[in-house]
Amino acid sequence: MQIFNYMKEYDYEQLLFCQDEQSGLKAIIAIHDTTLGPALGGTRMWTYASEEDAIEDALRLAKGMTYKNAAAGLNLGGGKTVIIGDPKTEKNEEMFRAFGRFIQGLNGRYITAEDVGTTVQDMDLIHEETDYVTGISPAFGSSGNPSPVTAYGVYRGMKAAAKEGFGSDSLEGKTVAVQGVGNVAFTLCRHLHEEGAHLIVTDINKEAVQRAVDEFGAEAVETDDIYGVDCDIYAPCALGATINDETIPQLKAKVIAGAANNQLKDTSHGDLLHEKGVVYTPDYVINAGGVINVADELHGYNKERAMKRVETIYDNVSRVFEISRRDNIPTYRAADRMAEERIERLRRSRSQFLQNGHHILSRK
């Protein structure tokens, strides 16, 4: 892998390798862009097949966070960390304390949070060494479990998508096929049920499905049958890449809006949805409630303020559709363009030299 060529092609700012022999820490911090503010992105711990795979994952995920934070209207850039190791067997206190010291050494350029393979407890250990971490225990001023907030943001985004697809943002009487009924999706189902939507659900966890049936009167189907059901809205809320060559011909939904990450297996599938007239809601715009919520912790968490910000996902999703129509491009490209335009506007307005920039972190 030609690292500098890769970084130049996608305009990365910084790639850091962090090693601590005593604890076994092997971490890679990628900072993609800090035009809007310090880079925010979680710490992932994974058993990568190679160091090159770990580097590539960190870079890819950091760029994704730049776009997610920009599209959410946050004054934050994008970054990500990967720690090489088995999260089930190789964690120790010293590892996360050492990592916290590396973050502190960046002096606020990068702020981390929980991600795949890490926990709130791990963030608490990092917090022992640095303030540049969010998603810590409520005792330290955290907002707690972000799932309900993410779900509310997806609900707001789905209403905006319904307005685009059906001319009204009311979900009453609409049939929504929800793939996956985990923490986020279950709360989403509650919002939909309370508005009067009819739910069709599936999940590999049969207990989760039964709970949705019992509480919301949902109709249960087998996992492979969810794509072909008669519905108005398809809500992918489980694994990524469920919108692909096999599933698109089955889909009867006019609107796709869900919580899952990386819903398109390939960008060509976004092009195909556009050609078919399906209203696809880009995942990193609609599921940004969690990152909006943790970003509020940087100012001393205020739930009311955070929820008002999450409500703006409706406007962000609507803006994506406007750009899609304006430029006659698929919505996944419109979302990228919305993020890029915001970054470029700020880049032009920040041409003045500052000896000491504004310090975003105010939590004590």
TrEMBL record:
<dbReference type="GO" id="GO:0009083">
    <property type="term" value="P:branched-chain amino acid catabolic process"/>
</dbReference>
<dbReference type="Pfam" id="PF00208">
    <property type="entry name" value="ELFV_dehydrog"/>
</dbReference>
<dbReference type="GO" id="GO:0050049">
    <property type="term" value="F:L-leucine dehydrogenase activity"/>
</dbReference>
<feature type="domain" description="Glutamate/phenylalanine/leucine/valine/L-tryptophan dehydrogenase C-terminal">
    <location>
        <begin position="144"/>
        <end position="351"/>
    </location>
</feature>
<dbReference type="InterPro" id="IPR036291">
    <property type="entry name" value="NAD(P)-bd_dom_sf"/>
</dbReference>
<feature type="active site" description="Proton donor/acceptor">
    <location>
        <position position="80"/>
    </location>
</feature>
<feature type="binding site">
    <location>
        <begin position="180"/>
        <end position="185"/>
    </location>
    <ligand>
        <name>NAD(+)</name>
    </ligand>
</feature>
<dbReference type="InterPro" id="IPR006097">
    <property type="entry name" value="Glu/Leu/Phe/Val/Trp_DH_dimer"/>
</dbReference>
<dbReference type="Pfam" id="PF02812">
    <property type="entry name" value="ELFV_dehydrog_N"/>
</dbReference>
<dbReference type="InterPro" id="IPR016211">
    <property type="entry name" value="Glu/Phe/Leu/Val/Trp_DH_bac/arc"/>
</dbReference>
<dbReference type="InterPro" id="IPR033524">
    <property type="entry name" value="Glu/Leu/Phe/Val_DH_AS"/>
</dbReference>
<keyword id="KW-0520">NAD</keyword>
<keyword id="KW-0101">Branched-chain amino acid catabolism</keyword>
<keyword id="KW-0547">Nucleotide-binding</keyword>
<protein>
    <recommendedName>
        <fullName>Leucine dehydrogenase</fullName>
        <ecNumber>1.4.1.9</ecNumber>
    </recommendedName>
</protein>
<keyword id="KW-0560">Oxidoreductase</keyword>
<dbReference type="GO" id="GO:0000166">
    <property type="term" value="F:nucleotide binding"/>
</dbReference>
<dbReference type="InterPro" id="IPR046346">
    <property type="entry name" value="Aminoacid_DH-like_N_sf"/>
</dbReference>
<dbReference type="InterPro" id="IPR006095">
    <property type="entry name" value="Glu/Leu/Phe/Val/Trp_DH"/>
</dbReference>
<comment type="pathway">
    <text>Amino-acid degradation; L-leucine degradation; 4-methyl-2-oxopentanoate from L-leucine (dehydrogenase route): step 1/1.</text>
</comment>
<comment type="similarity">
    <text>Belongs to the Glu/Leu/Phe/Val dehydrogenases family.</text>
</comment>
<dbReference type="InterPro" id="IPR006096">
    <property type="entry name" value="Glu/Leu/Phe/Val/Trp_DH_C"/>
</dbReference>
